[in-house]
Amino acid sequence: MGGNLVFVPECHSTNTLALQLCQQPSTPEGTVVITNNQTAGRGQRGNSWEAKPGMNLTFSIILKPVFLDLKDQFFLNIIISLGIHDYLVTKKISNSHIKWPNDLMVGKKKLCGILIENQVQGSRFTASVVGIGININQQYFNNDTATSLSIVTGTEHLLQEELEQLLQKVEARYLQLRQNSVAKIKNDYLDVLYWKDEVHQFASNGENFTGVIQGIDDGGRLKVLRNDTGEVKTFDLKEISYLQ
Ligand code: BTN
């Protein structure tokens, strides 16, 4: 990954650029599109993604996971977030977790977000654009729910070096998926899942409830045991919010 690096000083969204590049069959798998200044970064659930120019990593990886069945597409979320988690572990960060489906948390704060956009033909993937926004050297944020690598480690980091290290870890997990080690991958994901087996407050359908995250089902939906009814319910991304 990153052998073919497309650098643009400024763009609206590296995901949008990468999706355009995917249209050209000559674009090799593993191409990385990266910018210093992303002016209209896109996030999950239609949110925007803000990053101070030159301070953080905002990039997209083009994958061609033709080996993957569409019904298993959640595994892409798993291996990308696990790869980034592996990278954070190499930085001696011990309190990093993956908030379902794929936010990287350190303590209670978000350090990295991932937006995966797939191109599909029939029942197969033709390409998948994996957009990653990881806060590296930014010190101040508009909200107190975000953090950065330099806040957590107490030192500044070279963006180029961090990109290379991170891509290595993500690639290793991608190869694990290609070798079909899905049981190990799922176990590793559950081991680092944020709030798993803890009692917390959630909201769904305009209603708050107390529950305990149990894991994920075969389609990657979140399984939560509701304390009030004793039932295990499954949720899609838009169906549940984490409260406290
Ligand atoms: C989220 O947590 O909501 C996902 C954020 C994803 C942001 C990255 S930054 C690089 C890539 N380009 C985009 O427009 N979005 C992703």
Automatic annotation (TrEMBL):
Q: What is its EC number?
A: 6.3.4.15
Q: What is this protein called?
A: Biotin--[acetyl-CoA-carboxylase] ligase
InterPro entries recorded: aa-tRNA-synth_II/BPL/LPL, Biotin_CoA_COase_ligase, BPL_LPL_catalytic
PANTHER family, sorted: BIOTIN PROTEIN LIGASE, BIOTIN--PROTEIN LIGASE
The molecular function terms of the Gene Ontology recorded here are: biotin--[biotin carboxyl-carrier protein] ligase activity
Q: Which residues form a coiled coil?
A: none
Keyword set includes Ligase: yes
Which keywords does the record carry? Ligase
Q: Where is the BPL/LPL catalytic domain?
A: 1-179
* Entry's transmembrane regions: none
Which superkingdom? Bacteria
